[in-house]
Amino acid sequence: MSTPPSSSRSVKISDDERGGWSSDRPRRDGAPPRPADLTVRCRVLPPTDHMRYTPGSLLMVVSASVIERDRFVTRLIEDKNSVLSRDKVRALLEGRVADELVEEKSEELLTAAIKRRLTAGDTTVVALDSLAAEEREPVLRMATELKRPRHLIFLDTKVADENRAEHDALRKGLDAGDLGAEGVQTAMRLGGSAITDLRIIVFRRAPKQD
């Protein structure tokens, strides 16, 4: 991949933006352990034409439009093996398991594939099905436990009326930096021409300066 001209805007994400801790408050006898607090500071990044992430990062792509999500990922993610989604897993299971088991099995296989890549320190791009925090939470928890950098890109596209409230809540929360409560370390919202203006996403360390 060629290096963009020096005039291009570029955002670089370091590999030390990590966090997540457990509460030190005592638990009642017999009470289940409190889940680790994933809260970190979330940097809200402006739209850009060149995005550089640390190798081994988790990048989640969120959109109300599956078509726009897939078009974005296909255009910008060079390593197709790093891209994971329920759609890809469902396609692999079609005709191999009973229809009523597809969703359950696809969830199991997707979770295992994400964990395997994160554990190996491989870059992992997850194209999420929905805007719901509940879908992001287990992925972010795995990445936090494995101390992987965690990033999110939200494609702000047209949305159906039934998804409007969830869409607007995510948009507002992202702009305010509130996704840090979920463990997201950087978040970027792209809408309109900003989606196509982003020309390059790389998972490489910045070249050393002489």
UniProtKB/TrEMBL annotation:
Residues 1-37 are annotated as: Disordered. Residues 12-31 have a biased composition (Basic and acidic residues). InterPro entries: P-loop_NTPase (IPR027417). It comes from the Bacteria. Residues 1-11 have a biased composition (Polar residues). This is Uncharacterized protein.
